[in-house]
Design brief:
This protein has 287 residues and is an alpha+beta fold. The chain has two domains: 127 residues; 101 residues, no CATH class. The chain has eight helices and 19 strands. The strands form five sheets. A seven-stranded antiparallel beta sheet has the order 2-3-4-5-1-6-7, covered by helices on one side. A four-stranded mixed beta sheet has the order 10-13-19-18, with no helix packed on it. A hairpin with a 3-residue loop joins strand 4 and strand 5. The protein is elongated.
């Protein structure tokens, strides 16, 4: 479920807007590109990356710029979203409309004047709360829900999402705190030779890493399904020569002190942070 807004350029002389013009309204507005795993990269756009806007003062689910050209800007916000996300969605739409000197926007198929935006904000906030309250019907799952957010996806139980409907402000705080810690979300890298497949998670010195509590050992590629024989953790940039040392996933966790492992969300743990020296010592033990 998403709220989509279209801003049409009705001026005779049309020009596309620069992202910097759209973000100029607030210093805390930023943009980046979500990769195929939903992680914010802040790098140049890849062909499959999504352009995302977010407010660093309260990082939520993020506003996607689906399309932007000299005729139209198309915005989308996935629901349930935070109150701050909803407000930002309409503020961005208003900013685009003002830059193009138009006095209305399209919310789905309805034309809304800029003077009437506040009522849409109130309506969408109520819709987000209702979406949280009805999480079982919204997501049709019994265990874990993955919500793509501005910086990286977050995992929730259905009960956790439903609880946020009675304390909606806490939903905003939770999303912001989880995404502002500066941790890297490692995504699975499946590799194999001669029919033996392994799943890799990569860690880096100088920061914390988000890892699954239980590595997924099955994957699909080239219309085939594979089962990995082992899950490994690799450390990047530790030793000369570019070779990343590897270690069994569970062995890696067992070598860590208890203060290096904490629960992150419903399906993952936060591991670290590590200095370079700490990682070198851990992987030396494996050799």
């Amino acid at each position: 479920m998403a709220r989509e807004i279209y801003i049409k350029n009705t001026r005779l002389l049309k020009r596309a807007l620069k992202i910097e013009e759209i973000l100029a309204k607030k210093e805390s507005w930023h943009y980046g590109y979500a990769d195929e795993h939903g992680r914010m990269t802040f790098s140049e756009k890849d062909k499959d990356a999504q352009l995302m806007l977010f407010d660093s003062d309260m990082i939520g689910r993020g506003i996607q710029i689906v399309d932007s050209n000299r005729h139209e800007v198309h915005l989308a916000l996935s629901m349930p979203a935070t109150k701050e996300d909803v407000v930002m969605l309409y503020e961005v739409a208003r900013q685009v409309a003002n830059l193009w000197k138009t006095d209305s926007i399209m919310v789905e198929e309805d034309t809304v004047s800029l003077s009437a935006i506040e009522s849409n904000i109130d309506w969408d906030i109520k819709e987000c709360i209702k979406c949280l309250e009805n999480s079982r019907e919204t997501f049709h799952q019994s265990k874990c829900v993955i919500l793509p957010c501005a910086i990286y996806p977050l995992h929730f139980s259905l009960e956790q999402l439903m609880d946020f409907s009675t304390d909606y402000d806490r939903f905003s705080v939770y999303l912001h705190e989880k995404q502002s810690i500066g941790a890297f979300m490692s995504s699975a890298i499946y590799a194999g030779s001669d029919g033996a497949y392994a799943v890799f998670y990569v860690v880096y010195p100088g920061g914390a890493i988000i890892l699954p509590k239980e590595p997924a050992m099955k994957f699909s590629a080239n219309e085939e399904s594979y089962t990995c024989a082992e899950a490994l953790v690799a450390a990047s940039g530790l030793f000369p020569g570019g070779n990343a040392p590897q270690m069994d996933y569970q062995d890696f966790l067992q070598k860590l002190s208890s203060d290096k492992i904490t629960d992150f969300d419903e399906g993952r743990i936060l591991v670290g942070p590590f200095t370079r020296e700490e990682l070198i010592e851990i992987f030396k033990q494996n050799n």
